[in-house]
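Allow me, if you will, to draw on your knowledge of protein folds for a short while. I am sending you one protein, given as its amino acid sequence and as whole-number tokens for its backbone shapes. Kindly check, if you would, that the fold set down in the tokens agrees with what the sequence suggests. The record follows directly beneath this note:
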Amino acid sequence: MISIGRVGRVVAQPAGAAARAGGPAVRAPVSEMRPSRLDGAGAVGIVASVPLTTLWGLQAPIVAGGIGYLLMAVALTVLMPERHWSPAPREGRSTVRAMGDTLRRAATTVRVYPALLTILAISFVGGAGSEAFDRLRELHILGNFALPTSPALPAIAWFALINLISLALSVAGVEVARRRLNTESHLDAARVLLVLHVVLIAMIVAFAAAVSFEMAALAYLVTRIVRRVAQPISATWINLGLTSDVRATVHSMNSQADALGHVAGGPLLGWLALAAGTR
């Protein structure tokens, strides 16, 4: 279910990276808060995972997702050539030195704008904290609660239904935020992110403390929605004050901070789950 659902969303990522990279050092487009038209493809993948799993087992959507990635790579090679992009002049420098210069400029930008350093710290802590939820949420629900008997759906169908609802509501939430949020203001973006993360923390605690399937499913649903809505707001916040020569690198640093959080927090939280339970 997760593998196929991601294929549709991943198609949009190369275009976003291309828009953020290369070219002269001009001011970045600020807002990235536009719901992707390819979210519908993710919904199709979620729906398709249910019959695939029912007919051929849990490995079927994973295999199908892998094939989807390969087909997507071939299609993007043909359909998305870099016709209108030219790299910044390297003035005779080697590729390694040019990359090092970009990293240094990105690090300098992060130091100049304290908000960026804050975002990197948030991404690290958030990555560590979300690791337990991402890896153990299905186990927590299936191991601690009985699925509803009316309607009598298999577990894969319940998770697909929750994911579909969260996808639809998060797209609506991003659109509301795009229309109402002042994307040129650090303060407005910070306030919205603060509220979203407070709600996120509350929902994860509620998920852990849930006493019924319905309570756990609701907390799970809201958690997914909040995380989806917060992501483009965070990307927009990062774009404030950035120029195109370092923008892609700063976004990459933010992704790496999140990944490092997962690596740092995952083993410890996994050990804790084994020792004391998923709650």
